[in-house]
Amino acid sequence: MLAPTAVTSARWRVGSTAGLLLILLLAGALRFWGIGAESLWLDEATSLVVADNPPATIVALTAEDIHPPLYYLLLHLWLIFGRSEAALRSLSAVVGVLSVAALYGMGRELLGERPAALGALFLASAPLHIWYSQEARMYALVTLWAVLASWLMVRALRKGGWWWAGYVLCTAAGMYTHYYMGFVALAQNAFAAYLLVRRRLTGRRVGHWLLAQLAWILLFAPWLPVVVRQIQGGGGAWVGYAVGRPGLATMADTFIGFTIGPARAEVPALVRRAAYLLYVLALALAGWRLARRRPAEAPEVLDGAVLCALWFALPLATAWLASQVKPLYSLRYALPFLPPFCLLAAWGVDVVIPRHKAAGLLLAGALLASNLAGTAVMAELPQKPDWRQLTATLIAEAQAGDLVVPEPFWNAKPLRYYAGGRLAVYDLAPLPATPEEVQRCVEELGSVERRIWLVEDVGHYGDPDRLLYQALMKRGRRVQSFRAAGIGEITLFELSR
Fold first, then answer.
1. Is the full-model pTM beyond 0.85?
2. pLDDT of residue 5
3. What is the 3-state secondary structure (H, E, C) of 324-388?
């Protein structure tokens, strides 16, 4: 059975209260700095549209979508802090900082003090984690549930008691936040099987483990019929359009995202290549350390490394394989697998420090610097469509009676958020399938409105043939057009009576 790990030398008690506080201050600073600088994008506006309803309505709306309801319910409560970009995103920022703290606690339990502190530091500065800690979506929250559930699982296996209840609740909460939590549960069960084979999980603990799995499944069972309906209804089809069936290049992109972050194209080539090599080196050192299984290495520490390896690799491989049948792989969904990646890299660095202190510190510092480089570039570049500026432009140029028609129709959400009632936004939902039907809709609009602003995401699967644009051209004349970066073509039509 698992046993508590020993604490690393007092010289390296970076995980003391002061050291942990510094790491958390860094995590908070990186996540709250510029949190409201960019405008909300479509998915964030959707979060507000859903959360700005009574709880029963939120549950009903999410049942028609593809995501479960817990994040939206929490955001509903969080709206007491306001509806600004910063207020909406701050829930994810707080959750992101808590994930760093939880990873430290888990890392200390599994691997020791020094790897825990380094792993928390790497997650605190990880560009991808910072990115989704500044987004009003559920990905940072499910990552927190993944870390807490894994930590509480280890505690429960070691100590039993009420730790089982914590594990069950966090796993169920993760499932009610995002379905990728199921891949985390798969890795946890693989770890339990490993312990059983290694004869570290015997007797009553096996029964407790099985009961815990049954318990969280029963807690999630009321939502299972909804999951089936969502799948049958084609929920998540955007992944098929945007990603499709992932190849090996997609896995490489995931590794790159875990290292230098989502703005890698703008990071200097030398810096990003160095980051890739450094992380490969750190992970290789972790693999070498695990494979050697030296007698001096505590068995429970090796077990902790196995858990991290399973939690990182097995969900990614399973999601990739499942996506060959039904595309469901996305980098943002893989965020819950980033914490064990950070811990493994930290454990690899940790093997160097006792033997070559200067080299180990240099490697840790270089990994931190590469994270900060990716974060700095990410902070300087616009990453989201600027709906705020576009809406301000439309408000400034629109005349009384003008109508704004977004295509696809769901782009009405960010437009309405920034318009605040100052623009008449009409969502043609859904767009008719044939040119004749689209033309009839335009004729109806033309009988009431004289000028229409078409906000068109050109090339998007909402209207790839530009049927609405062609119908408006037939019904009237084009007055002006311009492009909005990250959004598409904006065209003003004047319709004849």
1. yes
2. 46
3. CCCCCCCCHHHHHHHHHHHHHHHHHHHHHCCCCHHHHHHHHHHHHHHHHHHHHHHHHCCCCCCHH
